Each structure stands twice: as C-alpha cells, then as structure tokens.
Amino acid sequence: MFKERMIREKTKTLEKEVSDKIADGTIIDLLWEYAEERQAELKSGQIEIEDLLEALEHKTEEYIEFVKKNYPERVEDFGFVLATKMLVDGKRKVRFMYHERPDNPQDSGWRFFCGDEDDEYVSKPENIAVYDIKTILEIDGSILPYLDAPTDMAFERE
After folding, report:
1. Same domain, yes or no: 136 and 101
2. Which residue of 47, 70, 84, 135 is 20 to 30 Å from 91, comparing CA positions?
3. Same structural domain for residues 80 and 65?
4. For residue 93, which phi and psi values (nearest 5 degrees)?
5. What is the pLDDT of residues 133-146, one digit of tens each?
6. Would you say the pTM of this structure is higher than 0.70?
7. Cα 88 to Cα 73: distance, rounded to the nearest angstrom
8. 57 alpha carbon, distance to own chain's centre
9. Which domain range does residue 46 map to?
10. Chain segment 58-116, per-residue pLDDT in tens
11. Angle at the Cα of 69 (from 105 to 73), degrees rounded to 5?
12. Domain end: 30, 52, 70, which one?
C-alpha cells in the first residue's frame, strides 16, 4: 500500500512537470500506463521502488523531448481557433471539434466544443470566443495529434 502511494505521488509530481513544460494529455496518459505496467514488476520483486521512480522520471523526460522534437511547429503560427466559453471557462475536455475552411489568414479553421452546448447556447455570439490554440491545448492536450487533419473533418468522443 505504501509503495503504491509513493508511485501515485511520484506520477502526480511528474504529471505536473509535464503539464508545466508542455500541455499534452496524451503524454500524461502514457506516463500513467507506463507506471501501471511497471507496478507488476514491483509487486513480483523484479525491481525496487527506487528503480521504478527513477524509470518514471526518465520516461517523462523521453516523452517531453519527443514532443518538443517532433511537434514544435504544430502550435507556433497556428492561427486562432473558436471555442465555446463553456469549454474554456469550465476547463472541460474537448468532446467535439471540427476543421472548416478558415475565414481569414489568421484563422486556423478549428472549432472546439465540450459537447454539452445546445443549439440555443451556440447560436449566441457571446458564448463563443477567439482563442490561441495553446489555450485549448492547456485544457485538453489529447487533441494535439488531430490538429493536422484536413478541412471538412470532424471528431467526436464520448
């Protein structure tokens, strides 16, 4: 029980470190999966708790470097996005997003929703705002792999 608590605490610390360096929920999910996989080794006595904690730190740095190396251009000069205030102000996960033809050169064409907005809410201009993509990624980094999708694409998750 004590070892599992130490792993949870270390993983949460590393999760914050990842969030501070880059906003990518996918990486955080991978880090949790890695920790869970390695716990079996810990329980069977194949590794010590200190070795697991050190491996988690190393894996975190690997993930951060991978994203910095492979995806820096994805958020620079991206253009603005439109999102509902319900999503951004509530810091909700993106449940629906689509990519349409941009309205102008500064527009990326991306539109983001938390999925609880009804037609009445979306029809009111005061409920939609212009944001930098980094704002959306800070809330839900798991959308990053989809941002290269062509126009006329939509994504929805339950």
Report:
1. yes
2. 70
3. no
4. -70, 150
5. 888 988 888 888 78
6. no
7. 23
8. 19
9. 2-70
10. 776 776 666 656 555 555 677 889 999 999 999 999 999 999 998 888 889 999 999 99
11. 0
12. 70
CA distances from 59 to 11, 40, 49, 119 (A): 11, 17, 15, 43
Instruction: Look at residues 125, 141, 132 and name the one whose alpha carbon lies nearest to residue 93.
Output: 141
Strand extents, DSSP E, the chain: 80-84, 96-99, 107-113, 128-132, 153-156
Question: What's the structural domain count of the chain?
Answer: 2
What is the rounded average pLDDT of the residues 41-66? 74
| Residue ending a domain, choose from 42, 70, 98 | 70
Q: Which residue has the tokens 């079996």?
A: 40
Chain-centroid distance of CA 80 in Å reads 18
102 and 34 in one domain? no
CA-CA distances (angstroms) from residue 32 to 10, 78, 148? 11, 29, 26
Contact 77, 134 (CB under 8 A): no
The rounded distance, in Å, linking the Cα atoms of 126 and 143 is: 24
151 shares its domain with 79: yes
Which DSSP symbol is given to 105?
Answer: T
Please give the Cα distance from 6 to 75 (Å, whole number).
34
pLDDT band of residue 21 (cuts 50, 70, 90) is very low
Measured distance between the N- and C-terminal CA atoms of the chain, rounded to whole angstroms: 33
